[in-house]
Amino acid sequence: MIPDTLERSAGIREHDVDVVILGAGINGAGLFRDLAAQGVSCMIIDKADFGSGTSAAPSRLIHGGLKYLETGEFGLVAQSTLERNLLLKNAPHCVEALPTFIPIFSWTRGIWAALQTLFGSKTAPRSRGALLIKIGLSLYDFFGSRDRVMPRHRLILKKKARREMPHVTPAIVAGGIYYDAKISRPERLVYELVKDGLEANPHCSAANFTTLTACSEGRLNFRREDGAEFSVRPRLVVNAAGPWIDHVNEALGAPSRLIGGTKGSHILIDHPDLVRSLNGHMIYFEADDGRICLVYGYLGLALVGSTDIPSRDPDSVRCEEPEIDYFLQSLRSLLPTLRFDRDQIVYTYSGIRPLPASDGTAPGLISRDHSAPVIEADGTRPFAIMSLVGGKWTTFRGFAEEVADSVLARLERPRKQSTRYLAIGGGKAFPADAQARRGSVDKIAGAAGITAARAEQLLNRYGTTAEAIATFPSAHSDEQRIARAEHYSFREIDWIARNELVVHLSDIVLRRTTIAIEGRLTYEGLTDIAGIAAKALGWDAARIEHEISDVVTLLKVFHGQSLAAGTTDIEPGKSARPVSL
Q: Is beta strand 282-286 parallel, antiparallel or unpaired with respect to 292-298?
């Protein structure tokens, strides 16, 4: 058995394990949970936090990939729509339906370009007309029929379309409405997958902020941030490092050229008029240059994305000024009666999609399908390396299932459990209807002595884990709230710090919670959170100062957010929005 602490004592300790997964993004975490459920001894390791890389930078959609119909990737659409439907059932605390509006600017345009793309053209089609969109949405409904949980599409004429989306440009001739889904807390879902794996199998372990230092004689040597070292002798290594896959394979002594990633950036804007006018819908539209953009309401803000730019620099990726200009101009063209300026921007983020190397193909046309090429063992390396290339957030479970089956075949083990209907984290025993939901809310409120509104807020945020959080015997009370982020309590943060494998302050504000991305983090609030974490994790004054400084730098450099010491405002142009229950 490998303990969760991974031997924090000094000196190198050695373990034998069936599988080591390098990289704890969504693909690695999904595979870890699957293998753990099959009884495989498995270790997942990441050089940073769980879900802190590309998996923290998606469009926050769980979708079937409507645009992949144009490239003839019907199998990918079929799998994606199925996995979307399953996630709505398996993670209802994080994933919810998202009605989507497509503005249509012509009746017949784009058919010839779409046919060219379908048959291999490297240029993306432009100006998709109503006929083409109608065909596409009908196909989309067909592929999404398995485990269907949402309505079918509909096409509406201009007058009705502008009633539903009043700020959309009058240049449209019609609109299409179909259904996909959104994920409110993708970083938490990655963590919950890891936690599920640990709970399912005592012979599994997980380590964040742990670096691979050497690979020799069949052993992988690692060092944790606290200086503790350990060595692992695996039967198989899975490289799930996303855009870092080629770097990791080189460190393992098996150089590769598998990844040709593209950069995807997003912005979040504080625009109440826009959010109200969307009425719970996403607008999925073509920018003036033909690229696909989207905007929808996310935790009270409007999320806008995404770019698709070739890039090979995942460690320093950030949303650049030209990308911001592109987003704002695209919104102005689509919604000419609304104002869009930089002072509305609350948060920016960017990540590298770990797409397969594909020279000469337009970024938007590079396949989002996945593969798991294997570098077999050789005389100097007794274990094979399986690399997880490509894929989408939505399809992680299906991808994990395929890879787990391959791993089980190599280990000559049977599959013990399907993950198809296996609930994730706080999605376990989640109330299935309004009556059951009221019962859950009343139970939590009664057990914790909090209001029903607060209990429902926690249920929405954490699923059925909410009861454990609400009743946690903390030195802090639920009435103590984070400064200028009053929808989070001291007790809540204390529970997270003590129970969710937190190493740094940034883990709490960027991934275990959504305080930073919501634009509600202030220097005062950050200090509150640091003080709670310090008591839970044994930090001294110097460590607290370092952790606060690190978060301030991360937000400024990578997320366009400045926290001013001694103030309660986010600068520039944004004040935190207090909410209390």
A: antiparallel
CB burial string 85-112: b at 16+ within 10 A, e below = bbbbbbbbbbbebbbbbbbbbbeebbee
Helix, strand or coil for residue 343?
Answer: helix
Listed residue (357, 425, 568, 321) closest to 50, CA to CA? 425
Q: pLDDT value at position 406?
A: 97
With a CB cutoff of 8 Å and minimum separation 6, the contacts of 208 are: 24, 45, 46, 48, 49, 50, 501, 503, 507
Q: Taking Cα atoms as reference points, which of 431, 368, 349, 338 lies closest to residue 89?
A: 431
Q: What is the pLDDT of residue 7?
A: 39
The torsion of the CA quartet 338, 344, 346, 350, rounded to 10 degrees, works out to: 70
Q: What confidence score (pLDDT) does residue 10 get?
A: 34
Quote the pLDDT of residue 4. 46
CA dihedral 287, 289, 290, 296 (to 10 degrees): -20
For residue 232, list its beta bridge partners.
15, 220
Q: Output the CA–CA distances (angstroms, integers) from residue 151 to 88, 177, 538, in the order listed.
A: 13, 10, 51
- Alpha helices, H only, 317-376: 321-334
Q: Quote the DSSP letter at residue 573.
A: T
Among 542, 544, 549, CA closest to 533: 544
CA distances for 467 relative to 24, 199, 442, 457, 488, angstroms: 27, 18, 11, 11, 15
pLDDT confidence of residue 13: 61
From 21, 31, 23, 147, select the one nearest 84 (Cα to Cα).
147
Q: Which residues contact 460 (CB under 8 A, 6 or more apart)?
A: 93
Q: Give the C-alpha separation, 484 to 130, whole Å.
A: 46
Amino acid at position 537, single letter: L
User: Distance (Å, rounded) from C-alpha 419 to C-alpha 400?
Assistant: 9
Query: Which residues does 495 contact at the CB level (< 8 Å), separation at least 6?
Result: 468, 469, 472, 474
Distance CA 351, CA 58 (A): 8
Distance CA 230, CA 66 (A): 45
Q: State residue 429 phi and psi, 5-degree precision.
A: 55, 25
Residues in the chain, pLDDT under 70:
1-14, 110-127, 288-290, 357-368, 564-581
Contact status, residue 546 vs residue 530, Cβ threshold 8 Å: no
In the chain, the amino acid numbered 565 is A
State the Cα–Cα distance between residues 121 and 71, nearest whole angstrom.
9
The crossing angle, in degrees rounded to 10, of helices 111-118 and 130-143 is: 40
Number of Cβ atoms within 10 Å of the Cβ of 579: 15
- Do 138 and 153 form a contact (C-beta atoms < 8 A)? yes
3-state secondary structure (DSSP) of residue 20:
strand
Task: Quote the tokens at residue 345.
Answer: 């921007």
Rounded-to-integer distance, Cα 495 and Cα 207, Å: 19
Whether residue 2 contacts residue 41, with contact meaning beta carbons closer than 8 Å, is answered with yes
250 exposure class (CB count in 10 Å sphere: 0-12, 13-18, 19+): exposed
